[in-house]
Every structure is written in C-alpha cells, then in structure tokens.
Specification:
In chain A, 74% of the residues lie in helices and 4% in strands. Chain A has a two-stranded antiparallel ribbon with strand order 1-2. A two-stranded antiparallel sheet of chain A has the order 3-6. Chain A has one domain (39-314). Chain A is mostly helical. Chain A contains 14 helices and 6 strands. By secondary structure, chain B is of the alpha/beta class. Chain B folds into 3 domains: 9-244, 3-Layer(aba) Sandwich (Rossmann fold); 254-343 and 428-514, P-loop containing nucleotide triphosphate hydrolases (Rossmann fold, 3-Layer(aba) Sandwich), CATH 3.40.50.300; 356-427, no CATH class.
C-alpha cells in the first residue's frame, strides 16, 4: 500500500504532467475547437522549434550554464541556408560562383550553428567567461551577422525541396514533428545511456568533484554548447523552411521561451538535476497555453502576463516541494 | 599545573560541552579570560579551540554550560550580540569585504549617517584615521581593502574590534599568513591593547610565539582543558606533552604487511602559490611508498599536506615541479586524468565539495571515475553499473538501503566509504587519502582504519594525510612530518613517538605562510 509520503513524491514527480493534463482539460471545456485533431497537430508543429532549442538548453542548464544566444544562432543559421540556396556563393577573388543544393545549404547552416555554439563553449570553458556573458555577447554578434548577411531584408522564395521540412508530412505526421521527436529521442538516449550524458549531470552537480574524478570538464562543456548551437540551427531550418523565408529578426526572444520551458520542466538552473522528458512537458505546457489563450481570444498583452505568471507558479511549486524534502 | 583563580577574570567559561552528531567536540571545558592579559589557547588541530571560540563569539548558540561575562551569565543569540557585549573575533580567514574601503569595513553595519539619511563619509573617515593612528597604521581610509597586504588587513580587523570598544578580542591563528616584520607590529599592537585593559584571547599552535606574547596559557586536547596557568610556570616541552599525551591502546593497530618493493615515488615536489610570489607552499618534498605500505604525512595547519597530495594528483600543473615514478618508471601527471590512468586515486579532504556528486545515487558516484567499465557497445549498462556498485558496497560495508539511494542521504562515514569505493573501482595502485576520518564518528573511524589496513594488505600503496597523531601512529608504517611546506622528519612506526612527531611539526622560525590549508 502506498503511504502518504509516496503519494506526495509521486505527485511531485508527475507535477508537470498533471499540470499539462489539467490545462488540456480546462481549455477543452471552455475553448471551442481546442480539443480537435487539427489543433493537436497545430500545437505540435508550433512547439517544434522551441522543442529543438529547449533540448539543447536542457543540456546546457544541466551543466550549470545558460545559453542566451539560441535565438540569434537560429536566425543566422536559417539565413545562411536561405542565402546559399537562393544566391549561391560568389567568390569574386577567384572569379568563382558556387551554386548550392538544398542539402548543401542545410548542412552548411547546421555547421554554422555548431560552430557558433563551439565558440560559446571555447569562451566559457577555456577563457572562463561566465556563460551568461559569453552567450549574451554571442546573441548580439550572431544577430548582427544575420543582418549583415541578409542586408536587413528577408530572403524569400526558397523552393519546394527546401520547404519539405517545414511544410510536408511523412507517414501522416508533419516532418517538423518527426524532426524534433528524433532530437528528443537522441537526447534522452545520450543523457541516460552514455558516459557523456552522465558526465553532463556530474559537471552540473559538482564541477570540482567531477574534475577530481578525472572528467575532462572543459571538453564536456565545449560539446554541450556545440550541441546547443547545432540544435538552434535545426530550429533555424524548421523556421526558414516553414515560412519559405529567412528574416533578420527570426527567433527574436526565443531564448526566453526555451529557458522557461526547461525551468517549467523541473530542471534546476544551478545544474545537475533535470531531464529532457521534463523539458518536453515544459515545451508542451507553454504550447498548450499559447494555443488555448489564442482560441479564447485573450488579448496578446494579457497572454504575456499569464505566461509569466505560469512560469513563476511552476518554479514556486517546485521550490516549495524541494524545501519540504 | 592547576587552574589558577584570578580576580580580574572578565569572562569565564563554565563546564562548556558541545557535540556534533556523535562527536564530542568540547567536554566540560572551564576557562578564565583575564583583562589586560594575553590569554593563549593551544592545542592540536581538532582539539576544540575553534569550537570554543565560536561559542564565545556567539556563532554557536547551542551548548551545555555557562558563559559568565563581568559576573553576569550571558547567552548570545548571534555574533552581533556578542559584539555588542564587547567580544570581537578576528578570524583566521579575515572577514573583510574586499571591494569596500577601509572605513566602510571598519564601520560595516554601523555607518555614520547624517540627518539626511546619507552616509557621513567625512566623519567616518576621520574616525577611522583616528583609530588607525592608535594602531600605528598610516593608510588612507578610502582605499579598498583588497589593495592592502594581509598584515594590513589584519590591522583593519583589529581597528574594527577597537571601534566596537571591545573588551575581549579573540585572535585565531593571527600570524599564519603574515611576515616576520608584521608579526612584530602585531605583537606591539597586542601589548598596547592589553596595556589598556583589553583581554586578548590568542589561539595558536606556534609555541615560540607563545613564550613571546602570552601571559597565561591553556592547553586543549580532545575537547578538554588538560592544563592551564601562567606562562612562566611551564616549558615548551610541558606544553608539547600536554598537547599529545593520549593513550594509544584504544586505537586500531595495523598489521605489518609492507614488502620491499617500491611502487610509487615522488622527488623534489615543489608548489608555489601564484598569489604569493616565490614562496613555496610545498618545498622540495620527496617520498616513496612500497606495496602494502601505509605512509603517513603529518603536519599542522599550513604545513602543505593537502597541497602536496593535490600536486602529486596533477591539480596544480602550472605552479609545481618535481618527478613522479611508478614501478621505477618516470610518469607525467599533469591532470587528474593522467593520475587516474596511471593508477593513482585521491580521496579528498572535503568529501562534499570535492569527493561526491551529492544529488547522484551511490551507484553513479561509485562508477564515476571508472565509468568506461560499465559500458557495453558504447552505452551504459545499468546492470554492469549496479553490479560494480553492489560489489563495492558489500566489500566496504557501506550501509545504504540500495545502490540507487541518493548519496546525500547517507551518513558521513558511509559517504566517505562511497568516495573510497569510487577510487577502488578504478583499480588503483596508489591511493592518496586526505584526512579520511574527518568529521565522522568514532565507530566509522575504526571501520575506515580497518579498511585502510585491509587495502594495504591487498597490496595497495597508501599515502595518508592526517592531523590526528594517534591515527597516524596507529595506521602508518612510516611517517613523514611536514612543517611549513618542508619535510622535517621521517620515522618508522617503531621509532615514532607523539612527542617526536609534534616537535618536528611545530614551525621553528616565525613568519609561516599558508592560508590554503583548512583547519581540521
């Protein structure tokens, strides 16, 4: 028989899931059209970008860091993909013009995102710049580079092949949803089943003890930020492909939604504690909230207020629970 | 030496006892602090000096016994109350806020405020200058404390105490980080304080200082006062005897299993503290350990014990030098990764800060340093991991409901065993142990002793740092004594006596350095 304590710890364990279910029930009863197949897919596709960013953010936050640059890295990677695809690469010095295929453009964009993340990691691991500052700087740098690359205007008309990821379906499920499902699956496997995943938790739990136990802390951090950069680029691919356009303001403010999702999902900002599954729930909670509020025609300004309150509530409940234990 | 009754005792501690968990830190301690005198308190590390001072200065509020100040029984609820009653404590790690100015530090929390509610800096600076002048320190009260030398910072702390009109000033190892010249100045200051009727409580383990500055001395050992009285009535030898005189019979004695084969040797290990220029923290230390041998490293605070182990383990590659040999072959250890792959494990002194990931399970902690062996096809196998953990839990007798238990929930002794298990799981040749029995109860201590002996019996080479003499005497086949970073003596277990070891450990010259080492 379960004791009261067991009930309580179960409740704590599944609090995000309960909150999500509760929200679904509430919105279903009062928002017409919320509980429908169409809206189900709509919510899942809408959260796909934030899902990618938040998986990377979870890894970063698990090591005790933070990445504020995900939105800008998303924009630059997307713009690189769009620009290469549309205009190719001109190298006047060699009197050369290189045309780029959709696949080539996507891979280059992913590489750019990974490199920016890698650079974040270098600054944080080797120059010991606090993650907040290093990624804040990268946020500005990548945004500026995006504006330079695009000349301040959107790059549009990218063609059907490139649009596949953002608009098509595979086996009845939007490719966007597949993409982030695969990312989530890999992340869960890596965190639970590989040495690297275990080390991510160890570094966040006690960096000193991790170092004393022979872990290469710098390399672990470097990898984590690189992965976050790469996942931002995947987000850039989804956004650009969906809109058939890369704009210089893409992904603006996405870092905040992503951090919110990770925190709502129960990952501790001080590192060492949390899970990708929690983050998935956090992303869905934000997505469901957005969808429900829109269907209820809550004015956009109020939506922000309500979202902020939900974040506070989630973390406050979490704090109260951990205090009791 | 009988406790002497004096008329001018401003503060009396009566039958103070205090326990932490199962450990009795103070046991029925009675002490008198006299006005206008330097009241010295000496004792081994862990004898209870710091605990007693923390009670007197209001940091620990729960204890048995009474504190009588000026004939009134007092019970301080916090350090601020003790300060208001005129007791100021000058900590070993100075309690100053580095980026605030001298004046701001001296009057922290009691700033002069004008009628407008703004800080009256001019008055504060004037008052600070006045106090500093009394202390013979000519510095601008507006400069930031971080720009001052340690000795000057100490004077700022004393100025703080004076500004409180303290009638009792407690100084905890005040000379541990300052130069000879500054010690002279400090002694001058102390004399001028006592001349004005202030009672100075002076905690130290440097006996030569004691005879220069102290008026009375009280010796603490294992939480009890073992002797006290005027300094003229005792000799240095008396004090050493009182500090160490403990019966060895209760302690575990290790079986002799050492072979002749040297496994691990280091030579000319040096470490400099970049913050302190050319001073050696570890000064050309060499030692070797045989298979099955337990080598003890003994030293008082500031001897460089922990730093020596850290250097050998590759934690200070940029500030150290020296050669390391395993099985006669020279090896390079520039990082813990190198050390572990060479078969060296390091059980650190502070298991919570350096040894364990507290939020992780017992199994995850045990497997952490040798995680590769729990992999199957590049993926972690929880079956292999749990088996590895279960084997070590059984071998070391770790009391835990399951290997999945979060390590934070274990007792100190069992946590320590988890740290040792983590290193055993890497299959080491050499195990460095830094204060392995620190902060654990007596039963757990005995279990650790037994374990260390068994590990040596299985052929492991062990280097153990400890500041508890009986422990060193009981477990080690050989002892090296460190003092101020230098190797001052070496004894086999049959040669060693507590007096000989303690004598070698006490710094001979003045001006010792080292604030790296923590008091144990």
């Amino acid at each position: 028989m379960l004791k009261l304590n067991d009930h309580k710890s179960l409740l704590v364990k599944f609090q995000s899931l309960l909150a999500l279910l509760l929200m679904v029930v509430i919105f279903s009863s009062c928002a017409e059209g919320f509980f429908s197949t169409d809206n189900f897919w709509l919510v899942l596709t809408q959260v796909s970008v934030n899902m990618c960013l938040s998986v990377g953010m979870t890894l970063v936050i698990l090591t005790g860091g933070i990445d504020l640059s995900v939105g800008s890295v998303l924009a630059l990677s997307g713009a690189v993909m769009a620009g290469l695809l549309k205009n190719g690469l001109e190298l006047p010095a060699f009197n050369l013009f290189v045309g780029v295929t959709a696949l080539g453009a996507i891979l280059t964009g992913l590489l750019v995102g990974s490199f920016l993340g890698f650079f974040n990691g270098l600054m944080i691991a080797f120059l010991r710049i606090p993650p907040f500052v290093a990624t804040l700087a990268m946020m500005t740098i990548a945004r500026g580079l995006t504006q330079l690359w695009t000349g301040g205007a959107a790059i549009t008309g990218l063609g059907e092949v490139f649009g596949y990821v953002g608009t098509d379906r595979f086996a009845g499920v939007p490719v966007r949803v597949w993409t982030c499902a695969v990312m989530v699956g890999i992340a869960i496997l890596v965190l639970k089943k590989t040495r690297f995943g275990r080390y991510v938790y160890a570094v966040g739990g006690n960096e000193r003890a991790a170092r004393f136990s022979g872990l290469n802390v710098n390399r672990i951090k470097l990898r984590v930020y690189t992965i976050a950069g790469a996942l931002s680029a995947v987000g850039g691919l989804i956004v650009t492909s969906k809109l058939d356009s890369a704009t210089p303001v893409a992904g603006d403010g996405y870092e905040l939604d992503s951090i919110a999702a990770v925190v709502i999902g129960g990952t501790s900002l001080s590192g060492g504690k949390g899970s990708v599954l929690g983050t998935v729930l956090g992303v869905l909670i934000i997505g469901v909230l957005n969808s429900g509020l829109i269907i209820l025609s809550v004015p956009p300004f109020w939506q922000k207020v309500i979202k902020g309150c939900v974040i506070l509530l989630a973390v406050a409940i979490d704090k109260l629970n951990t205090k009791e234990q | 030496m009988a406790p002497s009754k004096t008329d001018n005792a401003v503060l009396q501690a009566r039958s103070i006892s205090k326990a932490f968990g199962g450990i009795q830190a103070l046991n029925d301690v009675s002490l008198e602090i006299c006005a206008g005198k330097v009241n010295a308190i000496v004792g081994e590390n862990g004898a209870g000096k710091s605990t007693l001072m923390k009670i007197l200065s209001g940091m620990y509020t729960e204890y048995e016994g009474q504190i009588v100040l000026d004939g009134r029984t007092v019970a301080f609820a916090n350090p601020a109350e003790a300060q208001d009653s005129g007791i100021a404590m000058i900590h070993q790690e100075l309690n100053l806020i580095p980026h605030l100015s001298v004046a701001e530090n001296v009057f922290l929390g009691r700033e002069f405020v004008s009628r407008m509610g703004l800080i009256d800096y001019r008055a504060m600076h004037n008052e600070t200058t006045r106090i500093l002048k009394r202390l013979d320190l000519d510095i601008d009260p507006r400069v930031a404390v971080s720009g001052l030398r340690v000795g000057q910072q100490q004077v700022v702390e004393i100025a703080h105490a004076l500004s409180l009109d303290a009638c009792i000033v407690i100084m905890d190892e005040p000379t541990s980080a300052i130069s000879d010249h500054e010690i002279e100045i400090l002694f001058g200051l102390i004399r001028s304080l006592t001349a004005r009727g202030v009672a100075v409580v002076y905690i130290t383990h440097k006996l030569d200082e004691l005879f220069q500055i102290a008026d009375t001395v009280a010796v603490l050992r294992d939480g009890s006062v073992v002797g006290s009285g005027p300094i003229e009535e005792v000799t240095q030898d008396d004090i050493v005897r009182m500090m160490v005189g403990r019966d060895m019979k209760d302690f575990f004695v290790k079986a002799d299993v050492a072979t002749a084969q040297v496994v691990f040797a280091v030579s000319d290990i040096c470490l400099v503290d970049p913050a302190r220029g050319a001073d050696y923290v570890v000064d050309h230390v060499s030692f070797e350990v045989k298979a099955g041998e337990v080598l003890g490293l003994f030293g008082l605070m500031g001897a460089g014990r922990t730093e020596l182990l850290e250097t050998v383990f590759g934690l200070h590659p940029n500030h150290s030098s020296g050669d390391i040999f395993l099985d006669g072959r020279q090896i390079e250890i520039d990082s813990p990764i190198d050390a572990i792959s060479s078969g060296v494990g390091f059980v650190t002194e502070d298991r919570k800060a350096e040894g364990l990931i507290l939020e992780m399970s017992v199994a995850a902690n045990i497997s952490l340093a040798g995680l590769a062996q729990t992999e199957r096809f590049k993926l972690l196998s929880s079956r292999l991991e749990n088996r590895l953990a279960a084997d070590h839990v059984k071998r070391l007798g770790i009391k835990t409901p399951s290997v999945k238990q979060i390590v934070e929930n274990l007792s100190g002794g069992n946590q320590q065993k988890v740290v040792i298990a983590k290193w055993l799981a890497t299959d080491p040749r050499v195990l460095l142990l830094d204060e392995p029995t620190r902060g654990i109860d007596i039963n757990a201590k005995n279990e650790i002793y037994k374990l260390v002996s068994e590990l040596a019996g299985a052929g492991l080479s062990i280097v153990m740092v400890s500041c508890e003499l009986p422990e060193i005497m009981a477990i080690c086949d050989r002892v090296i004594v460190l003092s101020e970073g230098r190797q001052t003596a070496e004894f086999t277990s049959s040669q060693a006596t507590q007096e000989l070891i303690m004598k070698a450990a006490i710094p001979q010259g003045q001006g010792s350095l080292n604030y790296w080492d923590k008091e144990c």
